[in-house]
Amino acid sequence: MTEPTTDQSVLNRIQELVSHEHALQHKEALSEEDRARLRHVQVELDQCWDLLRQRRALRTVGQDPDRAQVRPAEIVEKYEQ
Known about the structure:
The protein has 81 residues and is mainly α. The chain is built from 3 helices and no strands. The protein has one domain. The longest helix is centred in the middle third of the chain and has 29 residues. The N and C termini lie far apart (34 Å). This is DUF2630 domain-containing protein.
């Protein structure tokens, strides 16, 4: 069984991903594997931010934040900034 999702666990994951993203971005040259990993990290970051927003929105309207779900990359990547 996996650990329950909380706002703090999502924020912790965001921090991990941002650190990894920065490490990749500061490399002298990126290999194809590095570029693929960077893209994966960026998508996962978008998914985490979306999940956190969902949790907060559900809580704001008095609903259970645990109803929030990670949305597929195809959905979160189409959001406008």
